[in-house]
Amino acid sequence: MSYADKTSVGSDRSRAEIEKTLTRYGASSFAYGWQDRSAMVGFEMEGRRVQFILPLPDRNAHEYTHTPSQGNLRSPAHAESAYEQAVRQKWRALSLVIKVKLEAVESGITCFDDEFLAHICLPNGQTVGQWVGPQIDTAYETCHMPKMLPIIKRISE
Q1: What's the structural domain count of the chain?
Q2: Could you read off the pLDDT of 115-139 as tens digits, one per residue?
């Protein structure tokens, strides 16, 4: 069982709640978009550009097109309903994540960069998480740490 798996709050209301929360905590901009099976929420705050990519389910996945108990084919309306429920759950969870992170920062439990680090956009358009993730994998596979600030080496060469 996952958070808000039975929510009736529509995705549009969750997106609006995210925008309202970000505004309340001082965001200077907000953006939302979707493509294929993912949605994006982006905002600027604390001098940083932040981006969350929300993976959305495949509406043709077996879990939506068939019943969970006996695996019977659902009607198109029931399949769409099951899919929409899953999408609503994802948006509610994202709303909660953003709200909790902002409240932790506001309460002084953590700082903005620490809380949003993986989602902060770098000048090349990647998030810190996208950039550092492969380096972490390599470090564990090879037992060697990547060089810090590789640009320094290039400048001094």
Answers
A1: 2
A2: 999 999 999 999 999 999 998 888 8
Q: What is the pTM of this model?
A: 0.86
- Residue 3 placed within a domain: no
Within a 10 A sphere around the Cβ of 79, how many other Cβ atoms? 19
Q: Are 41 and 31 in contact (CB under 8 A)?
A: yes
Residues 153, 91 share a domain: no
For residues 112 and 87, state if they share a domain. Answer: yes
| Interval 56-80 mean pLDDT | 94
The residues, ordered by sequence, that sit 6+ positions from 82 with a Cβ below 8 Å of its Cβ are: 63, 64, 74
- SS3 assignment for the chain: CCCCCCCCCCHHHHHHHHHHHHHHCCCCEEEEEEECCEEEEEEEECCEEEEEEEECCCCCCHHHHECCCCCCECCHHHHHHHHHHHHHHHHHHHHHHHHHHHHHHHCCCCCHHHHHHHHEECCCCCEHHHHHHHHHHHHHHHCCCCCCCHHHHHHHC
| C-alpha span between 44 and 50 (Å, rounded) | 6
